[in-house]
């Protein structure tokens, strides 16, 4: 609806003037002193978005990449310190070969366009996943981005790439068991901190907020340990259509929940 005046109906302020579309919010609605430090996102619905428009799935992935840029910029602007994006799961290898090959070119494409700007903006690029399983060309591109941004002190842009949470935890257990077998670690001394230090997220705070797009209400093997205490926010919006205003709505809801718990 427009706020247009027809025949003198419209006199002062619209009833919802200044309010946003449902499920969205403006940056001005956020409390700057309670921005989540770490936001993690399951970027779902790229294929469905394409299908709904009669486009091939890869068009959905490509438009999903544009949303990555948009959301990373918005997250940095409002002061999110860590943004983790689930770009490729260990399950995604089961997809058709041509689709996997296309997906594995996206990190290079993204970085060839964005790495310069990420460096200018002091963003630190990190990877979380099994890097050995990546094609050489993909690995070379992500390694370069990690290396060239390693000393940056701004927002951490953390890509979960060839990531699976159970695999991550099994590997952490293996590392601990190896240390124990060598006599360098007393099993009785193992704490949550000992375990966390062997996870791929070591050194990062746990996510405060998890966002999943496209209407699915599952974790799909994403950061199972790290999300133990996080707030979850779901939207039916497909990832390629996810805008800054959806991110702000998620953060505003996070802030609303934090206030309620604070009041108890
Ligand atoms: C991928 C676009 C976003 C929606 C989800 C699936 C498709 C950005 C990256 C990326 C990864 C590493 C990096 C820089 C960019 C990416 C894959 C898929 C595999 F260092 N988007 N995006 N990687 N999609």
Would you write up a description of this structure?
It is built from eight helices and six strands. The chain is α/β, with parallel strands linked by helices and 264 residues long. The longest helix has 22 residues, at 57-78. The radius of gyration is 21 Å and the shape is globular. It has a domain at 33-164 and 207-256: Decaprenyl diphosphate synthase-like (Undecaprenyl pyrophosphate synthetase, 3-Layer(aba) Sandwich), CATH 3.40.1180. Helix 1 packs across helix 2 and helix 4 (106-120) packs parallel to helix 5. It is 41% helix and 13% strand. The chain starts with 37 loop residues before the first strand and ends with a helix. Bound molecules: ligand V07. Residues 43, 46, 61, 64-65, 68, 87-88, 103, 106-107, 110-111, 125, 142, 145, 159, 161, 239 line the site of ligand V07.
């Amino acid at each position: 609806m427009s706020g247009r005046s027809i025949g003198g109906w419209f006199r002062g302020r619209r009833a919802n003037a200044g309010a946003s579309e449902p499920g969205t919010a403006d940056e001005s609605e956020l409390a700057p002193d309670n921005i989540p430090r770490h936001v993690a996102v399951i970027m779902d619905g790229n294929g469905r978005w394409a299908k709904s428009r009669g486009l091939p799935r890869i068009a959905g992935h490509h438009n999903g990449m544009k949303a990555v840029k948009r959301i990373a910029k918005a997250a940095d602007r409002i002061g999110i310190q860590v943004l983790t994006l689930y770009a490729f799961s260990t399950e995604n290898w089961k997809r058709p070969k041509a689709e996997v090959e296309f997906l594995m070119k996206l990190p290079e494409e993204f970085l060839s366009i964005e790495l310069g700007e990420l460096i200018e903006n002091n963003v630190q690029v990190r990877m979380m996943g099994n890097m050995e399983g990546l094609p050489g060309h993909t690995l070379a591109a992500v390694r370069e981005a990690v290396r060239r941004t390693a000393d940056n002190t701004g927002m951490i842009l953390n890509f979960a790439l060839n990531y699976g949470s159970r695999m991550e935890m099994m590997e952490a257990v293996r590392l601990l068991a190896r240390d124990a077998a060598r006599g360098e670690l007393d099993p009785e001394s193992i704490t949550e901190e000992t375990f966390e230090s062997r996870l791929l997220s070591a050194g990062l705070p746990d996510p405060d907020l998890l966002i999943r797009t496209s209407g699915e209400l599952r974790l799909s093997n994403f950061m199972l340990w790290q999300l133990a205490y996080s707030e979850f926010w779901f939207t039916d919006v497909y990832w390629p259509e996810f805008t800054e205003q959806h991110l702000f709505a998620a953060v505003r809801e996070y802030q609303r929940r934090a206030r309620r718990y604070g009041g108890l």
